[in-house]
């Protein structure tokens, strides 16, 4: 019976602008197949809403499945030992990172264990002791031992097990479709008017002709689990397959939140992977060369007169992996990021980590000399069975999975150096959502990394928790409050016909345009990626942001005049347009922040002629001031208008002080009063 219903839906057509489009209708469409999207679908099903489907460009393409670190962390309430912890304490830790709304911090803390134990139940191998305690460890910005890990591939394990759960429930997956438009409807008039989601328009990536390319997915609710706008950056640790789709949401009118806040750190370039934790704690050699591989030198030693401090900085880079301007002074660990950036971006050289040999300052008479280590590094290595002759031997004893990971991708760390750069790694900002993760565009729910729930500084691993909690919250709200059926085809044609026609005409005009300027996706993405990595990543300036905005607008205007040579390139044309829209919004947010007096914080340095440099010999580009704490009490929201970007600054919401009297909570729960 279920298959017959799907076949019936497959035969439906929507008339719009004199054309017929394939139509699929459902209560909720989940766009994206990473850990957040899959959990949203599974949560909907378990809460009774089974008229759902998942839409994805490719089940194997997302960040969740393709990224990690030496020990990828999941952040949750403490679950072992005698250490005191509570929901409110964890919420305070999240809130203390700055520019995070207190109600969202409370929700992410309160539901962290529910999300964690769900993952345990479906087979994610988080380690526990014989008594059922799930052991934890301290991660960055974490006063308790709240971190847990299933190893370098934690998010991959999560995604694989969540996919099995989704498949067990028989949830429909549309694989091979790229969303090009969020379909909307305006309701009300005047001050009561609002925009709501009505589904999405997608391109079938296998289509051979424009007639077959466009497909309508009509839905009462859209869960937007598309990940970060990773395609904006050239220097990136995101998988190449992860691009993002935030631009489509911006064009719809969805608000951005904390778009200035992203994380950057040292990562490998050939195979994209975060080089945190053990990759640094085993003390590899940092090497710089000319582009052709000649003129090899250990460049860090030029800037660290005290070799013990150099070794400690490398070691601490494992704990303190994200770039942080506060850790550049006094020969701190983030000075290494600046020096790598200087070698690669400013000098045009290449930088490598060498695990086959020790840093020269760590050897005496040609052998490993542990007496050169500061006590913190020495004790860690001794306790971890890591006092071995070379970095690769230390890594083998401390974390062999870290070696196996690279070997699985054709890289043998025991025989070749690993090329690195300072790369974009995570967007703490994103689209704004309320306490149910619903956007200002009603019935549109951004979940996972695309949701800007984080603040400036977040504990390591909190992103995985946030994705599970947020997707669960969206599903619970939809299942209880947004249960309506999609209108019939005739009504949908009236509501959506114009928007569908305009979106399709935009692409078909590019296919038929009479011009010699042909769209080249590689060239366009290279232009926008290098622009963002230079002006909107870990090193920023007011002048650079303004220049980059003008260049992005010019590229977008030029793009709209180019011809698309074949149907297979059309989806990339839509995508580059949206990436440029996102780039304009993000860069405008950076410029607005700096113009209002914002300075270096989080994971970026804002060049300031009135500031100080970590070292006198560094270029003026690295002169900066540290953050004004007052900015941490504010949140920047952004709205794209086409003609420009509007900004709305507000005080962040405090952690709620709720009445926890059980009888009252029970009554509100029974009556559904807590769905605000």
Q: What are the salient characteristics of this protein?
A:
676 residues, 3 domains, 5-stranded antiparallel β-sheet, FAD/NAD(P)-binding domain, 18% strand, disordered N terminus, globular, alpha+beta, Methane Monooxygenase Hydroxylase, Chain G, domain 1, single chain, 37% helix
What this model shows, in words?
There is one protein chain. This protein is of the alpha+beta class. The chain folds into three domains: 2-66 and 153-262 and 426-491, FAD/NAD(P)-binding domain (3-Layer(bba) Sandwich); 265-425, no CATH class; 505-630, Methane Monooxygenase Hydroxylase, Chain G, domain 1 (Up-down Bundle). Helices cover 37% and strands 18% of the residues. The chain is built from 21 helices and 23 strands. The strands form six sheets. Strands 1, 2, 3, 6, 7, 8, 9 and 19 form an eight-stranded mixed beta sheet that branches. Strand 11 (262-268) and strand 12 form a beta hairpin. Helix 6 (112-121) crosses helix 16, helix 9 crosses helix 20 (570-595) and helix 18 (521-535) runs parallel beside helix 20 (570-595). The longest helix is centred in the C-terminal third of the chain and has 26 residues, at 570-595. The protein is globular, with a radius of gyration of 25 Å.
């Amino acid at each position: 019976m279920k298959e017959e219903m799907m076949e019936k839906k497959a035969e439906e057509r929507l008339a719009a602008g004199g054309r017929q489009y394939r139509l699929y209708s459902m209560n909720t469409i989940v766009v994206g197949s990473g850990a957040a999207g899959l959990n949203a679908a599974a949560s909907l099903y378990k809460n009774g809403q089974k008229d759902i489907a998942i839409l994805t460009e490719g089940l194997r393409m997302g960040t969740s499945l393709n990224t990690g670190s030496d020990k990828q962390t999941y952040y949750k309430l403490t679950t072992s030992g005698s250490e005191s912890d509570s929901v409110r304490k964890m919420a305070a830790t999240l809130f203390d990172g700055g520019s995070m709304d207190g109600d969202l911090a409370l929700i992410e803390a309160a539901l962290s264990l529910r999300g964690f134990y769900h993952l345990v139940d479906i087979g994610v191998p988080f380690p526990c002791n014989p008594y059922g305690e799930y052991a934890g460890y301290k991660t960055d910005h974490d006063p308790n031992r709240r971190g847990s890990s299933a190893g370098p591939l934690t998010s991959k394990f999560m995604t694989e097990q969540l996919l099995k759960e989704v498949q067990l429930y028989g949830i429909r997956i549309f694989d091979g479709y790229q969303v090009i438009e969020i379909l909307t409807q305006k309701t009300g008039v005047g001050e009561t008017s609002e925009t709501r989601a009505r589904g999405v328009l997608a391109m079938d990536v296998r289509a051979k002709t424009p007639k077959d390319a466009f497909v309508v997915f009509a839905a009462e609710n859209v869960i937007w689990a598309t990940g970060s706008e990773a395609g904006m950056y050239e220097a990136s640790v995101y998988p190449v397959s992860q691009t993002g789709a935030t631009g489509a949401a911006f064009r719809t009118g969805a608000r951005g939140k904390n778009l200035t806040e992203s994380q950057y750190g040292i990562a490998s370039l050939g195979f994209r992977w975060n080089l945190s934790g053990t990759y640094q704690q085993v003390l590899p050699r940092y090497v710089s060369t000319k582009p052709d591989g000649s003129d090899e030198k250990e460049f860090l030693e030029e800037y660290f007169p005290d070799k013990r401090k150099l070794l400690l900085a490398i070691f601490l880079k494992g704990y303190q992996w994200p770039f942080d301007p506060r850790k550049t002074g006094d020969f701190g660990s983030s000075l290494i990021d600046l020096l790598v950036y200087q070698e690669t971006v400013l000098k045009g050289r290449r930088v490598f980590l060498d695990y086959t040999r020790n840093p020269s300052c760590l050897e005496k008479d040609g052998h490993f000399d542990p007496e050169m280590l500061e006590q913190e590094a020495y004790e860690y290595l001794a306790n971890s069975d890591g006092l071995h002759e070379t970095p690769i031997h230390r890594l083998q004893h401390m974390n062999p999975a870290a070696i196996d990971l690279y070997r699985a991708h054709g890289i043998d760390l025991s025989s070749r150096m690993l090329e690195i750069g300072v790369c974009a790694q995570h967007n703490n900002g994103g689209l704004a959502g309320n306490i149910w993760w619903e956007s200002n565009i009603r019935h549109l729910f951004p979940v996972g990394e695309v949701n800007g729930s984080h603040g400036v500084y977040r504990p390591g691993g909190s992103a995985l928790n946030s994705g599970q909690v947020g997707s669960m919250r969206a599903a619970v709200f939809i299942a209880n409050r947004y249960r309506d059926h999609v209108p019939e085809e005739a009504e949908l044609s009236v509501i959506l016909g114009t928007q569908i026609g305009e979106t399709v005409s935009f692409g078909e005009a590019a296919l038929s345009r009479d011009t010699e300027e042909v769209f080249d996706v590689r060239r366009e993405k290279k232009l926008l990626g290098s622009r963002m990595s230079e002006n909107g990543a870990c090193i920023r300036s007011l002048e650079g942001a303004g220049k980059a905005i003008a260049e992005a607008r010019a590229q977008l205007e030029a793009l709209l005049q180019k011809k698309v040579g074949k149907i297979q390139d059309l989806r990339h044309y839509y995508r580059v347009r949206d990436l440029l829209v996102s780039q304009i919004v993000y860069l405008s947010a950076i410029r607005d922040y700096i113009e209002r007096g914002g300075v270096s914080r989080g994971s970026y340095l804002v060049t300031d002629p009135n500031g100080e440099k970590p070292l006198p010999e560094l270029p003026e580009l690295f002169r900066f001031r540290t953050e004004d704490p007052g900015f941490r009490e504010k949140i920047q929201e952004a709205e794209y208008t086409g003609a420009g970007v509007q900004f709305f600054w507000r005080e962040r919401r405090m952690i709620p002080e709720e009445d926890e009297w059980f009888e009252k909570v029970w009554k509100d729960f029974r009556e559904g009063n807590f769905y605000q």
